[in-house]
């Protein structure tokens, strides 16, 4: 029975879960099993979670004379409630039809991707679109901290004006310090290792459709997160809605 359930969870997550997460899911079903035992069964079944080599493309253009804001976040990667602190970044998505870029906005409390856009060019419009989608979806109150790197897109006049319109407080990483925006960098790294580097996008439409499936249906709604008590971001966010009701 345990081997059957291991097989189910491995294929249900498209090979993205290793023994730690599968062990958690089995224990929730009532199975008395250790991570070591699950790992042994997985090896016998020939199952290995997705692991892909890292390949980094620099998407930060901080060589500009645009205004930058102080680092309000200061590596405090915890927020008590949703819609208090958002972090944003851009990453490169390889595609045979032409390179693409993903702009994402993540809520530090729930780890949910609250807004994202995929486009052909690394422009201000791309990151503005992700921010607009996040604002329309969550309607946060004023004084939300919006943290990003010092990229020219985030430092642009249009982006700064949009933050003011939404009554958000801008925060930026220190120059050359990737750790200041570690949570969104971690999400993009996870996206690459679990999905992008294991997939060959032949067309831009395929890239958009499959990234939509990964973010909206797998990552936000299904993927269990260790920092959230091994539930998904949407499930974690629902706890706050129940408290407010």
What does this 3D model show about the protein?
By secondary structure, the protein is α/β, with parallel strands linked by helices. 41% of the residues lie in helices and 13% in strands. The chain is built from 9 helices and 5 strands; from the N terminus they run αααβββαβααβααα. It has a 5-stranded mixed β-sheet with strand order 3-2-1-4-5, with helices on both faces. A hairpin with a 5-residue loop joins β2 and β3 (113-119).
Quick take:
This protein is an alpha/beta fold. It has 9 helices and 5 strands.
Helical percentage: 40-55%
User: In terms of structural class, how would the helical and strand content be classed?
Assistant: alpha/beta
Strand order of the largest sheet: 3-2-1-4-5
The average pLDDT score comes to: 90
Distance between the termini: 40 Å
The major sheet is characterized as:
5 strands, mixed
Q: Beta-sheet strand percentage?
A: 5-15%
Q: What is the 3D shape?
A: globular
- The value of Rg in angstroms is 19 Å
Low-confidence residue ranges: none
Topology summary:
Blueprint: H1 2-12, H2 19-28, H3 35-45, E1 85-93, E2 100-107, E3 113-119, H4 124-138, E4 145-148, H5 152-155, H6 157-165, E5 169-172, H7 182-194, H8 204-219, H9 233-244
Parallel strand pairs: 1-4, 4-5
Antiparallel strand pairs: 1-2, 2-3
Structure keywords:
245 residues; alpha/beta; five-stranded mixed beta sheet; 41% helix
């Amino acid at each position: 029975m345990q081997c059957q359930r291991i097989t189910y969870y491995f294929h249900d997550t498209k090979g993205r879960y290793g023994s730690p997460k599968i062990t958690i899911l089995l224990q929730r079903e009532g199975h008395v099993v250790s991570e070591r035992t699950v790992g042994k069964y997985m090896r016998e079944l020939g199952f290995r979670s997705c692991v892909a080599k890292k390949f980094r493309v620099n998407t930060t253009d901080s060589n500009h004379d645009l205004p930058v804001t102080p680092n309000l976040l200061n590596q405090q990667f915890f927020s008590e409630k949703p819609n208090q602190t958002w972090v944003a970044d851009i990453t490169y998505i390889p595609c045979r039809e032409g390179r693409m870029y993903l702009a994402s906005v993540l809520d530090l409390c729930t780890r949910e991707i609250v807004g994202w856009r995929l486009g052909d060019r690394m422009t201000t419009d791309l990151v503005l679109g992700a921010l607009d989608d996040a604002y329309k979806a969550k309607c946060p109150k004023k004084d939300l901290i919006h943290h990003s790197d010092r990229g020219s897109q985030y430092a642009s006049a249009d982006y700064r004006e949009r933050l003011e319109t939404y009554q958000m407080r801008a925060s930026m990483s220190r120059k050359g310090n990737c750790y200041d925006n570690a949570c969104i960098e971690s999400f993009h790294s996870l996206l690459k290792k679990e999905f992008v580097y294991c997939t060959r996008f032949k067309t831009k439409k395929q890239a958009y459709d499959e990234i939509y499936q990964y973010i909206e249906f797998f990552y936000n709604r299904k993927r269990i997160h260790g920092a959230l008590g091994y539930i998904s971001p949407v499930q974690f966010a629902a706890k706050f809605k129940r408290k407010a009701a």
